[in-house]
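Chain A, query sequence.
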Amino acid sequence: MDSAPATVHSPETGESDPASDPVALSRRERKKLQTRRAIHDAAVRLFAERGFAGTTVTDITEAADVSPRTFFSHFAAKEDVLFGDRASAVALFEAELSEQPPEVDAFTAVRRTALNGLINRETPTEQMRLAARLLHDDRSLVGSLAERFAGLEEGFAAVIARRGGDPSVVDSHSRLLAACLLAVVRTGLTVWHTDRSDDTLEEVVEELFDLLGAGLRGDIPRA
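Chain A, predicted structure.
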């Protein structure tokens, strides 16, 4: 994997983490960040214990000792606790993609961006494994993720198109790359959980990109 970007990202959201610069934080901002992390940690613990469907927003707020109003001021839904919100994911994708040299072809740039940003190295491995397990065990969560990915696909396609030159046109190539990227990530989580738990998620996703880049000709050994 390429070296990590200098910006520190929040494990909960993928956004730039102001905690990396404590001097820049006001007391109120520190309190908000602490509350957000308390909600996140409580939710992840409950998801691991009870499953996603078995955990309600009320359960999370009680465990974190906050009100429902406070929860929804930080997260639009409990899915956002686990996967982050769409706007932050698209912004992170655009920031990572902009780091790729213009001479790099679109597929390679998207691949590197996925490995550097979407498979976020600041996110604890335990949380990534939990997400993979929940997706495997909870079919309702799979449906929620499909809806979320549909929105991400539009956002990612627009970012890829802007890199290609004409920001006013989201062409079929950009849409296909965005769809393939999300398919690789979704499949990677499944394969990692069911068949490749001894490997890293990065290794699994990288192999899937190899298969995709080879046009699925079957000339790369399957795991």
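Confidence is low (pLDDT under 50) at residues 1-20. The longest helix spans residues 139-164.
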